[in-house]
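Methods — Computational structure assignment.
A single polypeptide chain was analysed. Its primary sequence is given first, followed by the predicted tertiary structure written as structure tokens.
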Amino acid sequence: MFARSTTIMGNPEAIDPGIAYVRDEVMPSLLTIEGCVGLSMLVDRDSGQCIVTTSWQSEEAMRSSDLHLRPMRERAGELLGGQPQVEEWEIAVMHRDHRSSEGSCCRVVWMRANQTDMHRGIDIYRMSLLPRIESMPGFCSASLMVNRELQRACATTTFDTREAMEAARDEAWAIREEGVRDAGVDVLDVAEYELCLAHLRVPELV
């Protein structure tokens, strides 16, 4: 399974029109494309940052969809008031305890491998970190996406509520620090978002 993420640093006042555009126009069109599995959207209403992620059955399907989706990305950028930045990923791990609901929030961690075997990093996340992550109160789901060529990774943990996500910050920080040390990766950024569209529909990959 593969994913394409589009990040837009937009105008906070344009968040709701942006969500409506992705929900009402982008998603219905997207789901008609062969090989598309689904879509999710994260937003930070304070900063205006939005991340739209689409999931695909194969790398070929993801790549062949680009021309079709480019005008919609540009339109989303116009509505939100920011320039779309696109990244492509392999979905290495996906685990759900249960489906998300209204009010769910996500913590996203971006990492760069420091001359580390990506397979080893994925195994550390799957076998060592994930069991501890899913034991946190309010845990909903977790995923790990990687770009082997660029040696980048993106880990997302979804919680039932913002309160649960905030309450788990210290424990999540401790788990992350241990994983970073064991896997030999650098943390590039950590951010928290509202999960406003949750239709990624990726099957369990553990």
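Note: Residues 15-30 form the longest helix (16 residues).
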